[in-house]
Amino acid sequence: MELAILIVFVVGYICIAAEHPLKIDKAATALLTGVACWALLAVGTHVLPAHLAHDFETASQLEGHTLSLPEFFDHRLLHHLQEIASILLFLMGAMTIVEVVDSHEGFRVITDRITSTNKVKLLWIFGIITFFLSAALDNLTTAIVMVSLSRKLISDQKTRWFFGGIIVIAANAGGAWSPIGDVTTTMLWIGKQITSASIIKEIFLASLINLLVPLIFLSFVLKGNVSRPELKENDGHGATGRERGIAFFLGVGGLMFVPVFKTITHLPPFMGIMFSLGILWVVTELLHNGKEAEHKSKFSALHALRKIDMPSVLFFLGILLAVGALQEIGHLGTLAVFLKEQLNDVYAINIAIGLLSAVVDNVPLVAASMNMYPVSASAIGDGWADMFVQDGPFWHFLAYCAGTGGSILIIGSAAGVAVMGLEKIDFLWYMKKISIWGLIGYLAGAAVYIVEMMLLH
């Protein structure tokens, strides 16, 4: 059964990659793959995997009787669904906020200040803004915001695909060095493997190199100027300058408030995004309260909800379900143990984890690594154990590799999936045009970090 689940995942992955030749939407394939993996797990598993024994006992105690395997996997599915729902609700909330700001033409606050039409200059502007904004927000939200900005400045879709590629790379690189910029870095921060000050200090340069190398190479690929979309003339029913500014600063401010909300309340990030959406919703309703219904409706959050990209949300659901099934059956844990036994080098293990995160979700990979290598109380001095103290090189390098390795393939990160859905970027196009630069940037940043550690030690 383990082999059957793996085969279903691989076949589904190939079909997603071949979306355009097959003419089957990737969301449909992802949903089928995710559900099929769990169905095989529930129906075809007759012996409980050893790594789930403790969870089985805990679930049985909670229910008051010994569960059957299908009942147990139902519990496990709900456990994964809790995490998946948090991500999807966060994604939907962020998309809605961006759409509300967009309906007010709020992004003109930024786009009106970007006057250059030179492709190379714009590429650098987008890369640098995305890099630092991702550290302040998170890579997923930043990717959504920057794609919206690119639509205001670039009319040609294929040109925007190149910008989408650099947005993915920059968002993941910027998120890796911030404790709130990427979910895996946040996991390591909450788990006390790293501290917030140390991750910024140790990983910033490697993350910056990860972005600068692709930017430099792509500067030689892109030529000429972009053509800007025609701005709609205000017919008297569009947003005023005041309304535009209020929507922009409330929307972006609400997104930036999410990590603050999480720090204060310790509630999941999606609660913060929903709070920010609620504030923006109420204020925009009051802002247009005196207008006629037909003119007021286009500024409403209800109108924005109808415009968000639900196929991308369902695609994300299918992918995360499939990865969850792989985790349950033990494939990811087995892979982590294999890396430990075969590579026996902390830098090589982390580089491999980063490459794997381009194919499967980085969250279970980092979770497996956190369980494999407990934090040492103090440096022992034997070389290997020194790597696993709090703020040790292994944990910093894991944050970098897991956070940036997903840029190599467009479905390797939440930011990539969001950009893929919003811009309809072809998987194979990204692999041909962007993956090589993402890989080179990833390896260059890794090399910089290793050299830093060698010089320090």
Q: Would you kindly provide a written description of the structure presented here, covering whatever features stand out?
A:
- The chain has 457 residues and is mostly helical.
- It has a domain at 85-185 and 199-285.
- The chain is built from 23 helices and no strands.
- It is globular.
- The chain starts with a helix and ends with a helix.
Q: What are the low-pLDDT stretches, counting only 5+ consecutive residues below 50?
A: none
Radius of gyration: 23 Å
| Count of strand segments | 0
Q: Let me know the average pLDDT.
A: 84
Largest sheet: none
In what range is the share of β-strand residues? under 5%
**Could you tell me how far the N terminus lies from the C terminus, measured between alpha carbons in angstroms?**
47 Å
Molecular shape: globular
